[in-house]
Design a protein that fits this description.
alpha/beta; 14 strands; elongated
Length: 398
Amino acid sequence: MVTLDKIYHAAFVLKPVARKTDLIYAPNLSHGNSIYLKTENLQLTGSFKLRGAYYKISQLTKEQREAGIVACSAGNHAQGVALAASRMGIRSVVCMPDGAPISKVEATKALGAEVCLVAGAYDDAYNYACKLQKETGMTFIHPFDDDEVIAGQGTIGLEILDQLADVDAVVCPIGGGGLISGVAYAVKSLNPRVKVYGVQAENAPSMAESLRRGEGVTLDTVETFADGIAVKHPGNTTLSIVREYVDEVFTVSEDEIAAAILALMEKQKLVAEGAGAVGVAAALFGKLPVKDKKVVCVVSGGNIDVNILSRVITRGLIASGRNTTLQIALEDKPGQLLGVSRIVSECGANVTSVHYEPSSVNMAVTSCFITIGMETRDFEQIAEIRRRLTESGFQIVN
């Protein structure tokens, strides 16, 4: 069982390995509350997963170490297992979904693990890892549904209470539930008045659905770029702990996650992956009951693939009203585009692209469509531009 003594023991074992990550006040993200960021994205492997993996492996017997270990992961647990196994001289095989970011796959290899790519999502990699364990006799290091792993993650809760004694709420991402289980157990055991909230991607709400239905739910599919929390089925142990110690679980959209990543980069100079930003997304978009409260959002990881980062930033700009496109029906004659540009300029926006195309067969021969891309300040400015264009007689199609 998970106990407070076990979490304190994990903290002792992890002292030479895991950073006590900074707790940063984030005034630029605070709207009607005080947001603090627990920066696990700055952990040695770029994620909190090092804590649970290292503590679990440190508790293995001599025979288990000699047999080697096998694990499954979307990337962050993989790196924690690889680092811990390498430092302890243990052979490790990590099964990863074939859609895992290349950066996480390569980082896992660089840390000394043998990587086995499995077609499908995390759960498919999990099933294959279980098969390997039975065939080889290696010890399986579960990424979340394990008492020692949960205890290792719980050391984050101890650090938060030490760094901000008057914290009102702690917000954690949820995939399988290992992080929030450990944090919630530690926090609620030491200070029951502190609220603990979980956040999932709305396209991968396995824990939220399981709590709603009162039993463990297996989703048919999970489709989110927050690969670290793309889990079809939560753990049995974690579900039990979450049910007892977590106050509520919320979900956020892909656009809200992207906007949170953008906000963290732009306003806090922090790089977060999708899974690491969901707590901040929930706070930014008013999903949490935390008005006038001191809130700690655990930024659980920063291992985002640079190949998708630009797309995520673009999504974030659109979701926060910083980037938009308008399609306008015009008469195809001189001066029309100038009139549109003048209004956009007077409203303070910046035109980034213009695309011309002829009108459809159902419109006048002398008409056309202009699609304008713009950099904008916020949704209020977009609404002002649309209003001014309409008042000037321009027909906005989309």
